[in-house]
Amino acid sequence: MIAPEPEDGSPGSLRARLEEAEQTLTAIRNGEVDAVVVEGNQGPQVYNLEGPDQPFRVFVETMQQGALSVSCDDTILYCNVAFADLVKTPLERVMGRKLVDFLDGDADDRARSLLESCLRAPVTAEIVLRADGGERIPAVLSMAPLPGSNPPTCCVTVADSRVHERIREARNAQEAAEAANTAKDQFLAILSHELRTPLNTILGWAQILRRMDLGSEEARKGIESIERNAQSQAKLISDLLDTSGIVAGKLRLELRNVPIDEVVESTVAAILSTAQAQGLRIHADLKAGRAVVPGDRARLQQILSNLLTNAMKYTDHAEGEIRVITRRTGAGVEIEVSDNGQGISPAFLPRIFGFFQQEETATKRRTGGLGLGLAIVKQLVELHQGTIRAESDGEGKGSRFIVWLPLATADKDAEVAPRPDATEPSSDLRGIRVLVVDDDTDACDLLRQMFTQRGADVLVAGGAEEGVRMVEDQKPHVLVSDVAMPLRDGYDLVRDLRARGFGREHLPAIAISAFARKEDRDRAFAAGYQAHFAKPIDAEKVAVTIAALARRQSE
Amino acid sequence: MAQGLARDRYRLRLYIGGNSARSKAAVSVVKEVCEERLGSRYVLEVIDLHQQLSLASRDHVVAVPTLLKRMPGPSRRIVGRITRERMIEGLDLP
Fold first, then answer.
1. Is the Cβ–Cβ distance between A328 and A399 less than 8 Å?
2. Which of A147, A181, A440, B10 is most buried (most C-beta within 10 Å)?
């Protein structure tokens, strides 16, 4: 009986199978076999008959470089998976072929000479491989004679040079990105400085003029309008800087235990007059009592102030009303800001906390702004480990924002809260000699006017050198200095004065700077200033600080 | 080398066990004899048992080295030490 021969070469007849079994047994008995395949429970397994080479096999098969054995006539006797992958050729089509088949161009002589020299000593050379399909692959090839092999055989490793290029490119790209990031930070700091400097003069003079008798109602309204608009521009600039800080993950909180109702109360008080001027009513119903949250007071105020400003922006009818409610809920406090304004459409609601998101398209805008306020709020709330959600029953039906913040654990000390004093802090500067140092004449005039208006005796110096001379000659009570000045800056000035024996108790110093970041403040304090104000400054606040520092000095 | 599979081409499969001396010797001798006897009229696939065990199972290979002649029929195999003589005789090479 002759069985048909199957295509896959499996033995077809019983006789043939018996013969082959016999042959296999003989080969195994004679030690002619490297390994046998045994069918086990988990499929076929390979048993090596030559000893435990498994660790080396795994090593060779997992390495990223190609590894081959090549006979002295250039036949590939063995190759690992990495080489077959590199030349994009199935394993069984690599072994048995010539190494030169995988080299590019006039490689024949090259391969031969490499082989010849490698039989004497190891060689390393740069080559170009040709993959199946024609792709050219730059590679580094190392060859060494295999000791004791007969006929002589070489072992070869092949490393894809593009790997190093890719690593180098990735590193260059990362370095470029880091450099660009640093440049961007620096640019933002300068941008902030340049935007704040003129704004400081505008806002400052508006405040001075507001305190003067301007004769007509129009003039008063005009000045108020200038001041209001300059304020909102200042707000935009800090929003932009906050955004870039948040995006870069650089916003740090200074956490203390803060009584939440107090923050809400003072923030509402601060915007009350603006809201009333707009014809809006604000109701505050504060029920959180003595609840304290771990938070950054200034940032908590910013959260609430942004929510209130947002509510004011979108509530512009005669019956406009904004409600602020605080309450305790389990392990946290809730702050709810609601209005009866234009509401939020269901389509926009999910995107409301995104950066640069506004419900109106640019051409149909009724309100201004960049769409940063709520995005900043969300980020700040999350930095406080809190949550925020927005609700609205639809367009025209008002909106509700609910912030939840975790309560402080009981054992932490509450912040020494600056309780509102019975008496207003004084900005009366009568009898105080203030030295103003600034290289910018506009800024000097402004500060002189601000302080003179409040009764101070003002001296002015146009730079650090002159400032030092005037301190020695005229013994001012308080120094108010710009930071960025040519030649010697405000840091140099205060360090120089402290070194000359004018200590903080004899000459308290206030820095005024258009560099408004936290690191700028820290640097000012480290140099020897007792206070730091970012431009645009509020004349009243600076005056209060001067008065307080001068008072402490005389006590 | 592996273009076209005309009827008169020999299709051989050599199963080896990695980078061992015996396996390398098998590749060498098979290649040499094929070049000498068949010129360009052959396709040789060298398969490492450790790399492609499933193929070995399909071809009922139980020990390596094993050389299979798949075409032209009848199919034949040599198991164990592969020599020039065994190849010429066992595979009906011209």
1. no
2. B10
Assign residue A371 a region (left: φ > 0; alpha: ψ between -120 and 50; beta: otherwise): left
CA distance A388 to chain B (A): 57
Q: Is residue B38 helix, strand or coil?
A: helix
* Dihedral sign for Cα atoms in the order A407, A409, A415, A418: positive
Say how far apart CA A436 and CA A537 lie, in whole Å. 14
Among the ranges A119-123, A146-150, A172-176, A238-242, which has the highest mean pLDDT value?
Answer: A172-176
Kindly state the tokens that stand for A67: 């590894």
- What pLDDT, on a 0 to 100 scale, did the predictor assign at position A319? 84
Question: Is B45 within 8 Å of chain A by CB?
Answer: yes
Kindly state whether B72 is in contact with chain A, defined as any CB-CB distance less than 8 angstroms. no
Instruction: Give the residue from A318, A322, A310 showing the smallest Cα distance to A368.
Output: A310
Contact predicate A86/A137, CB 8 Å: yes
Contact A138, A128 (CB under 8 A): yes
- Closest-CA residue of chain B to A80: B51
End-to-end distance of chain B based on CA atoms, in angstroms?
Answer: 20
pLDDT at A433: 94
Task: At A441, give phi and psi (nearest 5°).
Answer: -65, -40
Please indicate if any CB of chain A lies within 8 Å of the CB of B23: yes
What separation, in Å, do the N-terminal and C-terminal C-alpha atoms of chain A show? 124
Can you tell me which residue has the tokens 């509530």?
Answer: A315
SS3 string, A361-427, reads CHHHCCCCCCCCHHHHHHHHHHHCCCEEEEEECCCCCCEEEEEEEECCCCCCCECCCCCCCCCCCCC
**Does ipTM exceed 0.85?**
no
The b/e string for A20-41 (b: 16+ C-beta within 10 A; e otherwise) is beebbeebbeeebbbbbbeeee
Residue A131 distance to chain B (closest CA, Å): 15
Contact residues on chain A for B74, CB-CB shorter than 8 A: 5, 12, 16
Q: How far apart are CA A63 and CA A79, in angstroms?
A: 12
Q: Which residues, other chains included, contact B9 with Cβ-Cβ below 8 Å and sequence gap of 6+?
A: B41, B42, B43, B71
pTM to 2 decimals?
A: 0.46
CA distance readout (Å), A311 to A268, A281, A338: 12, 11, 7
Does position A278 have pLDDT exceeding 80, yes or no? yes
Strands (E) in chain B, as ranges, are 10-16, 42-48, 63-64, 66-71, 76-79
Determine the Cα–Cα distance for residues A9 and A16; give it in Å rounded to an integer: 12
